[in-house]
Amino acid sequence: MDENGLFTLNSAHDFATTLERLTAALAAKGITLFACIDHAGGAAGVGLPLRPTTVVVFGNPAAGTPLMQAAQTVGIDLPLKALIWQGADGTVRLSYNDPAWIAARHQLGGELQQAVAALAAGLSALARHATGAP
What we know:
The protein is an alpha+beta fold. It is about 45% helix and about 25% strand. The protein has a five-stranded antiparallel beta sheet with strand order 1-5-4-3-2. Helix 1 (about 15-30) packs across helix 5 (about 115-130). It is globular and about 45 Å long.
C-alpha cells in the first residue's frame, strides 16, 4: 500500500481478462456492479490517446451502509472502486483504496473495525482473483 491508501497489484493476465475475472467474481459473490467506466474509450471519443483504463464501481449496501451510518462522508468513497489499467511498460495492474485507509479518513470508530477488516479481506480476495496475484 502506498502513503495514500492505494493498493496496486500486477496482473498475470491481459487487460480484458483481468476485467472479466473481476466482474465475474463480483457476480458470483452477489456484489452489485454499478458501473464500468472506460476512460480510454472516453479519451478516444475526444481524439486523445490513453492506454486501457477502466474503473469498476461495485458494492454491497449491507456492508457499506453501517459505515455511512457512522459517518455519512464515507459516501464519497463508497461504493468501492477498482481501477484496471495498463502501464507504459505494458503491465496490467489493478488498484483499489484500502478500506482501513477510508475508515481512518472518515474517523470511523473502533466499533466498525471488524466490518472494515471484512471489507478489506473481501476486496483483497477479489483483486487477487482478478489478477492471479498470490
